[in-house]
Design brief:
The complex is a heterodimer of chains A (427) and B (252).
Chain A lengths: L8 H9 L2 H9 L4 E3 L8 H20 L9 H10 L4 H28 L8 H23 L4 H12 L8 H9 L6 H32 L15 E3 H26 L29 H9 L9 H14 L4 H4 L11 H21 L7 H26 L10 H4 L19
Chain B lengths: L1 H22 L20 H13 L22 H9 L2 E4 L8 E4 L13 H7 L11 H4 L3 H10 L15 E2 L7 E2 L20 H16 L3 H30 L4
The chains are: A mainly alpha (427), B mainly alpha (252).
C-alpha cells in the first residue's frame, strides 16, 4: 500500500501527463488494500471478468466468419466448424464459455448471499451486480439463437411469445420485437446486432461494479470491516497470484470440457437446422435457465383477471428481480453466515431448492415434476419474502470477532468467544 | 462444499434424465467405437467401407451436403483417388459466357451432390417423408453413434396389436417405433473391396463410423490438442500453486 513511485523514466514521463499506471495500481495492484482473510470463494469475481474477456475475444473472431441470415446462419456455423482454421476451437470455447461464465457468476452470487456481501454499505455494488446478471442472460439468450438450429429457433419463439401474455400491448409488442409476424430473418438480424452490443454494455457496467467495489473494498468471510492496516494486505501480489492459481484450475476444467465433451451441455437437436414447420418434442433452454423455466411453467392456474401465462412470466422475471431487494429483505445486522446459525441452513436449503427447480425445468411439465416445481417455486419466493425478514428479527446470532486479524494472526489478541470463526485456510 | 457437490450432482442427474427421456424408445445397447474416449481416432478402413455403404445404399435418399470430395482425404484416399471419386458425379455449374447453365464432372472442391434437388422433391419420392441430411446425424440425435447403429439394426416384426400402414416400418429404437425408412441394409448389400464380409452388423458399424467422422471431421485434431493443453495447464497450475504458497508464506 505504498505510494506508487515508478523508476522507469518512460513510465514516469507518461505517468506525469496521464496517471494511468497509478490508476491501474490502485485498481488491481499493490495500491488496493484487501482484507487478509479472503478465501477461495472470493476468486470468482476475477474469474467472471476473465470469462467475459474470453467470450468477447472468441465472439469477435466468430463474428468475422458468421452470416446472420436465416438461409445461411446454420451453414456458416458448420463452415466455422469444418473449414475455418481453428474455427471449431473458437466455436466450442464460445459455446461452452457461456456455461462456464454462468457457473462462475452463480458461485459469485452465492458467495455474496452466504457472506452477506450485499449489506450496507455495498447495496449499490450488489444492485449493479444483479444488473450484470440480467444483461448476461439477455446476451446468452440472444447468442443461443444465432446458430439457427431447431432449439435456437424455438427458444426464440417461446421466449418472445411470453410477451403476448401482457394484455392489449402484448401482440403488437411481439410483432415489433420480431420485425414481422413470426420469428424470421429480421429477428435473427436484430438478435445478432444486440448480441454484439450487449457484451460491451456489460464491460461498462463491470467498470461501475469495480468502481463501487473500491469505494469500501471487498467484503470478507468474517463480515466485519477492517479496522486498521494490520487487517489488510495489498491486492498485488497476494491476490493476483491467488487469482492466477484459481484461473489455472478454472482453465483446466474448462479445457477438459471443450476438448473432450464439447457437446455435453448442449442439446443434440440444435444440430438440426431451424424448421418453422416442425416443433421439437421437448423444448428446453440451456441448463442455466432451467430454474426460471421451471418457475414459468409451474403456474398452471388463472387468478382473477390474470392469465396463468402472465403470472408465470411475472414470476419468472420476478425470480431474478427479487435479488435487487435482498439488501432490504435481509436486515440482519450480521453479514456472514458463519455467525448466523439459522440462516446458514436456510441458505443451503435454498440452494437445494434451486437445484431441484433446475431438475424440474429439464423435465416435461406434468406430474410429478409439475407439483415438485410448484413447491419449489413457493419455497424460492418464501425464502426471500418470508424467511429472510423473519430471520432478521428472530435469529440468535453468534458473537463476532473483534477484528479480522484476530483469528488469523498468531497472538493477535486474546481469544474470545468470537474466535470460533475459522481462520483463513492455510493454502 | 460437500453440499454444493451434492447439489451439482443432482442437477447433472436431472439433465441426464431429461436427455434419456428425450430419446424414448428402447434403451440403447452401448458399443465400443474407435472414436470414443480421449484418445479416440476414426478407423480409416471402417470409414472407407462406410463411405461405400453411404454411396451404394444411403445416398439413394439421404444427402450429405456438408461434405466436399476433398474432405475424403481424411478417409485415407490420395489426391488421384479423390479426383476419380468426384468424376463419377455430375454437378451443375455456370452460367457460362453465353449465360447458360451446364453440367460437368464434379471436382474435389465440390460438395457431394444431393439425391434430390429440394425437400419437396425428396418428400414426393418418399411418400411424403423427407429423408434427413446425414452430415450432422451423429451429433443431432440423443445417443449419437449408438443410436444410429441401433436404428440401422433395430428393425423387427411389430408386436401383436400394432398395425402398420404400407409406408411404415417397425423399429425397436426409433422414437414411437414407426418409421418411414424401410430397412436399408440387407446381407451383402455391398461388396467390400477389402473382402470384409458385408453383414448387416458390419455395414451398420462401418457407415456409423463414416458418419461420425462426417459430423465432426475435426474431432481427432481436437482430442490431440486437448491432451497437450490439459498437460500444460496441469503443470502450469501446479507452478502457480507453488508461487502462491511462496508469496503467502510470510503472512501465515
Amino acid at each position: 500500500m505504498s505510494e506508487f513511485k515508478p523508476t522507469n523514466p518512460v513510465i514516469r514521463w507518461i505517468e506525469h501527463r496521464l496517471p494511468i499506471f497509478s490508476f491501474i495500481d490502485h485498481a488491481v495492484g499493490s495500491g488496493y488494500p484487501t482484507p487478509r482473510n479472503l478465501n477461495y470463494w472470493w476468486n470468482y469475481g476475477s474469474l467472471a471478468g476473465i470469462a467475459l474477456v474470453i467470450m468477447i475475444l472468441t465472439g469477435i473472431m466468430l463474428a468475422m466468419q458468421y452470416t446472420p441470415h436465416q438461409d445461411f446462419a446454420f451453414d456458416s456455423v458448420e463452415r466455422i466448424m469444418r473449414d475455418v482454421n481453428y474455427g471449431w476451437l473458437l466455436r466450442y470455447v464460445h459455446m461452452n464459455g457461456s456455461s462456464f461464465f454462468f457457473i462462475v457468476v452463480y458461485i459469485h452470487i452465492l458467495r455474496g448471499l452466504y457472506y452477506g456481501s450485499f449489506k450496507e454499505p455495498r447495496e449499490l455494488l450488489w444492485i449493479i451486480g444483479v444488473t450484470l446478471l440480467l444483461l448476461m442472460m439477455a446476451a446468452s439468450f440472444l447468442g443461443y439463437v444465432l446458430p439457427w438450429g431447431q432449439l435456437s429457433y424455438w427458444a426464440a419463439k417461446v421466449i418472445t411469445n411470453m410477451f403476448t401474455a401482457f394484455p392489449i400491448i402484448g401482440e403488437p409488442l411481439v410483432t415489433w420485437l420480431w420485425g414481422g409476424y413470426t420469428v424470421g430473418n429480421p429477428t435473427l438480424n436484430r438478435f445478432y446486432a444486440l448480441h454484439y452490443l450487449i457484451p460491451f454494455v456489460i464491460v461498462g457496467v463491470v467498470i461501475l461494479h469495480i468502481w463501487a467495489l473500491h469505494r469500501f473494498g471487498s467484503s470478507n468471510p468474517v463480515g466485519i470491516e477492517a479496522d486498521g492496516p494490520q487487517d489488510k494486505i495489498p491486492f498485488h501480489p497476494y491476490y493476483t497470484v491467488k487469482d492466477l492459481f484459481g484461473l489455472g484450475v478454472f482453465l483446466t476444467l474448462f479445457a477438459a470440457l471443450i476438448f473432450f465433451a464439447p457437446n455435453l451441455l448442449g442439446e443434440t437437436i440444435n444440430y438440426v437446422e431451424a424448421n418453422p414447420l416442425v416443433t421439437p418434442a421437448h423444448i428446453v433452454p440451456e441448463w442455466y435457465f432451467l430454474p426460471y423455466y421451471a418457475i414459468l411453467r409451474s403456474i398452471t392456474f388463472d387468478l382473477w383477471f390474470l392469465s396463468a401465462k402472465l403470472i408465470g412470466v411475472i414470476m419468472m422475471f420476478g425470480s431474478t428481480m427479487i435479488l435487487f431487494l435482498v439488501p432490504w429483505l435481509d436486515r440482519s445486522p450480521v453479514r456472514s453466515a458463519r455467525f448466523r446459525p439459522w440462516y446458514k441452513w436456510f441458505f443451503w436449503i435454498w440452494v437445494f431448492d434451486v437445484a431441484v427447480l433446475t431438475w424440474v425445468g429439464a423435465n416435461p411439465p406434468e406430474p410429478p415434476y409439475l407439483y415438485i416445481g410448484q413447491v419449489g417455486t413457493v419455497w424460492y419466493f418464501a425464502h426471500f419474502l418470508v424467511i429472510l425478514p423473519l430471520l432478521s428479527i428472530f435469529e440468535p446470532t453468534k458473537p463476532l470477532p473483534s477484528s479480522i486479524g484476530e483469528p488469523v494472526l498468531k497472538g493477535g489478541g486474546a481469544a474470545t468467544a468470537g474466535a470460533a470463526a475459522k481462520p483463513v485456510e492455510k493454502a | 462444499m460437500k453440499k454444493l457437490i451434492l447439489a451439482a450432482a443432482i442437477v447433472f442427474a436431472g439433465l441426464q434424465a431429461g436427455a434419456a427421456q428425450a430419446a424414448e424408445g428402447k434403451a440403447l445397447p452401448a458399443r465400443d467405437w474407435s472414436f470414443t474416449g480421449i484418445f479416440g481416432k476414426f478407423d480409416q478402413g471402417a470409414m472407407q467401407r462406410g463411405f461405400q455403404v453411404y454411396q451404394e445404399v444411403c445416398s439413394g435418399c439421404h444427402s450429405l451436403r456438408l461434405i466436399a470430395f476433398r474432405n475424403l482425404e481424411a478417409l485415407g484416399f490420395d489426391e488421384d483417388e479423390i479426383k476419380a471419386i468426384a468424376a463419377e458425379y455430375t454437378v451443375e455449374d455456370g452460367p457460362d459466357e453465353e449465360g447458360e447453365m451446364f453440367e460437368r464432372p464434379a471436382l474435389p472442391s465440390d460438395r457431394i451432390p444431393s439425391p434430390f434437388p429440394n425437400s419437396k422433391a425428396a418428400a414426393a419420392s418418399n411418400n411424403g417423408a423427407v429423408p434427413p441430411d446425414l452430415s450432422l446425424m451423429i451429433k443431432a440425435r440423443d445417443g449419437g453413434a449408438d443410436y444410429v447403429h441401433a436404428l440401422l439394426t433395430g428393425y423387427a416384426d411389430p408386436p401383436d396389436g400394432v398395425e402398420l400402414l404400407d409406408v411404415q416400418n417397425y423399429n425397436l429404437y426409433f422414437p414411437g417405433n414407426l418409421t418411414a425408412m424401410a430397412p436399408p441394409l440387407d446381407e451383402d448389400a455391398v461388396e467390400y473391396a477389402d473382402g470384409t464380409p458385408a453383414t448387416v452388423e458390419q455395414m451398420a458399424s462401418d457407415v456409423v463410423t463414416f458418419l461420425a467422422w462426417a459430423a465432426e471431421p475435426t474431432m481427432e485434431e481436437r482430442k490431440r490438442m486437448g491432451i497437450k493443453v490439459i498437460l500444460f495447464l496441469l503443470i502450469f497450475t501446479g507452478l502457480l500453486y507453488a508461487v502462491k504458497r511462496k508469496v503467502w508464506a510470510d503472512l501465515h
